[in-house]
Amino acid sequence: MRYLVGTLGDHGAGVTTGNAGMVVKFLNEALMHNQDVMPVEYVTARCGWVESPEGKGFVLGRTWVGSGAPVRVQVEPGSGEEQILDAVCSRGDWDGWLRALAHGALAPSLHLAVYGSVASVLLSFLGIEAGYVIDWSGMTSQGKTTVLRAAASVWGKPTDGAMVQSWNLTQSRAEGTAHLLYHLPIILDDSKNARRAEDVATLIYQHSQGQSKGRAKPGQGSQAVGLRRSSTWRSVMLSTGEQSATSFSQDGGSRARCLCITGSPLRSREEAELVTLGVLDHYGHLGARVARWLADRTPEQVDTLRALYKRRHDEYGAVLALDGAVAGRLSALVALLAVAKAICERVGYPAPPDDCDPLGMACDAARSGGEDADRPLAALRSIYGHCVARSTAMWGRHVLDDGEPKQPNSGWLGAWPVEKVNGLNTRGRRWVMAIRPDVVHEVLAKAGYDRGCVDRWKERGWLVQDARGWTPRATVGPDGRLVCYCLSPAGVTSAQDADGEDKDG
């Protein structure tokens, strides 16, 4: 009623502080005497699953998907909320969107982003009392933003400021966005742009809890007046950054709800561009199909979906629990993604090719995630992926300019001979890739790993050392030999196995 009184004043009605009480009384009495003839409109403050006195369904932006009288979202006119709400919409057509995603059909991360986006609306639907985060990290920019745009295109306009938000938004804006979208995913790009590192940790924690902290309302001077109502949500956050989201926090609960995927999500820059161009023209179709399909389920069919989730949870839980407590707890998210995959295929999204395994990637990420992760292996993946993404800055994979080696702007990262037989022979082993120590230390620091990982690499035989335990030299660039960290064949094989691809050629 207060909102209505304020709106009357904004439209020129003579509502003042002196007569506002009488206006409220008049409106209440008018409502009581005319409730049998006045049309009824149901409103809510958020998107997602809603029950009204006449039915239940899904509020998809400005669209109602469900039974009974429509329910619409009411936001404050002129607010940033309107822009986000209007972004939950459709453009183009279904076939166009499928063609766009087909350019990345062999990329597990792309499918995983789609499943994660759909999984967001399944949390409440399946009665899951948790929020989750799926994060893509790595030094290379090849495809991270693209997979977020693909995830956003499931529900609406996949552009910055629309369904895709930057990590540089304020804490209150992030919480407000999550509350408005509620069951829809919140999508945040590039955590390095966060105002403060602790903001990332705080938001990750709050998202996993599904609730913001109550804040004091501002008063005069240093005084505060009451508390603002806490914002709530139940959704999946999809995020990117140069370093993993969990590296900002040591909180074990957050780690157990955050699936961190490292490396390049897509196979090439060209692939990323084709997917991006496609989803900018075609979006909002898969989400609408999923919402309609779920809204049409009978109670018995909902029970069947919940039973499917429980079976998958039991299956993945039994396997992942062997890799530690955190991996075992992440099995709930992997199971949720499996159900999302099944629903996507049910409404027409094609299954990945046989040699593309998104759920396998999710399991691998669960195994390597959290406080009990194999952090040395994860650190090795970061270094290897960094060099692969910048292969032309590696001596031996360099390009020529007028017959001369083309000097990289940032200098040579190390050496990566095309012919492995040209490597250094130590105790019967040859190094495959040599990396400058300062490059290794810089990448490790940005990705949230300490230098102790290098010692673990030595212990595992992933680094070649001479008979005295010294780090060998390698020819890096035309100017001579440098002391480098030299990855052994076993080290490169471990990185490739973890990364899911054989990138060495």
Describe the fold and architecture.
- The chain has 505 residues and is α/β, with parallel strands linked by helices.
- The chain folds into three domains: 2-79, no CATH class; 85-213 and 231-368, no CATH class; 375-499, no CATH class.
- A five-stranded parallel sheet has the order 7-8-11-6-12, with helices on both faces. The protein has a four-stranded mixed sheet with strand order 13-16-19-22.
- The chain is built from 19 helices and 22 strands.
- β14 and β15 form a beta hairpin.
Features:
single chain, 505 residues, alpha/beta, 3 domains, five-stranded parallel sheet, four-stranded mixed sheet, 15% strand, elongated, disordered C terminus
* Gap from first CA to last CA: 69 Å
The residue-averaged pLDDT reads 83
* Number of helical segments with 4 or more residues: 19
Order the strands across the largest sheet as they lie in space. 7-8-11-6-12
Low-confidence stretches: 215-228, 420-429, 498-505
Number of domains: 3
C-alpha-based Rg, rounded: 26 Å
The assigned structural class equals: alpha/beta
Instruction: Give the amount of beta strand, in percent.
Output: 15-25%
Task: Sum up the overall morphology in one term.
Answer: elongated
User: Roughly what percent helix?
Assistant: 40-55%
